[in-house]
Amino acid sequence: MVQTLHQTAIAGKGFVMKQFSQESAPAGVPVTRPKMSPVTHNHGMNSASGADTKREPRAWPNLYAMSGIATLILLLYSLVTMVVMLTLGLPPETTEGVFAMLQANKFVGLLRLDLLTVCCMPLYYLLFLGLYTALKNAHHDYAALATLLGCAGLTLFLATPSALSLAPLSDKFAAATDAAQRAQLLAAGEALIASDMWRGTGALIGGVLLQTATTLISIVMLSSKAFTKATAYVGIVTHGLDLLHMLVGFFLPELGAMLLMVGGTLYLVWFPLLARDLFRLSQRPTKE
User: pLDDT above 90 covers what percent of the chain?
Assistant: First the structure.
């Protein structure tokens, strides 16, 4: 509508000028019509689009550095977890054995019950935020989807560890003298163990979502200059094997354990590669 009114006003102005020229010019003198410059209606769009094409992707050096530190802590967590499993062993299978372990040495018992997981796994939130920021210019949709799946899976997974819940039950069981009360405490402990991070449905679904997210984000790395191809390919293999272990291990435990052993070892390779790339991004932002 505005453009139509504008054109009508121009036509009216031309008509008035024509009549004025014809009436005011002397007889026999040719009338010279003024040339009007063409009207363009860009309203600043060309300059705005030019500014958009020259805009640099925003850098987040502090976020990349924090994500790199989180990656190194996760690497240390993986190493300590392996040492705990090899030297102290897995937690007992029975509830009474778990209670006895906690009474003998609560700190060692909590370590065997994956207390480190409760403390260190939340660092994945920071890691996913840093990866999304680095990869959103390469492929925004898949980077956002991977971040959403990863945070959802991580939240489900963190709701399942039972170390901090079993410790007070162990103290109550040790102090209980009535057989009925001890039986109730054992039943409560068995319910917690049945739904922990190794057996619970929430942990399984959360783990599948988390490994799907890290596999997807490793694939997105292939189309970005922010991360090396080595980081991307090792991430695909590492998290792909971990995802396969979760899907297959439910039906074929022995095969699942073999996949976990290989995939778990590759974390010791992937974390240093990822930390190196994140620290490099924190020092000199990369345009993708």
Answer: 55
CA 250 to the chain's CA centroid: 26
Calculate the average pLDDT of the chain.
81
pTM higher than 0.85, yes or no? no
Does residue 213 lie in a domain region? yes
Longest dimension (CA), the chain: 128
Domain that holds residue 214: 64-91+119-162+196-283
Which tokens is 4 given? Answer: 């139509």
CA distances to 172, 235, 266, 287 from 217, in Å: 45, 9, 17, 18
129-132: which pairs have CB atoms within 8 A and are 24 or more residues apart? 129/63, 129/67, 130/60, 130/63, 130/64, 130/66, 130/67, 130/68, 130/70, 130/278, 131/67, 131/217
What is the pLDDT at residue 41? 43
DSSP 93: S
- How many domains, the chain? 1
Query: Is pLDDT above 90 for 210?
Result: yes
How far is the CA of 44 from the CAs of 4, 6, 50, 134, in angstroms? 19, 17, 10, 32
41 in a structural domain: no
d(C-alpha 277, C-alpha 226), whole Å: 7
Single-letter amino acid code for the residue at 219: I
Q: Is residue 209 part of a domain?
A: yes
Residue 230: is it exposed, middle or buried by C-beta count within 10 angstroms (0-12/13-18/19+)?
middle
Residue holding tokens 């970005």?
Answer: 224
Residues in the chain, total: 288
* pLDDT category of residue 59 using cuts at 50, 70 and 90: low
Q: Please report the pLDDT score of residue 58 as a whole number.
A: 53
Read off the pLDDT of residues 212-222 as tens digits, 9 standing for 90 and up. Answer: 999 999 999 99
DSSP-derived letter for residue 178 is -
Instruction: Indicate whether 202 belongs to any domain.
Output: yes
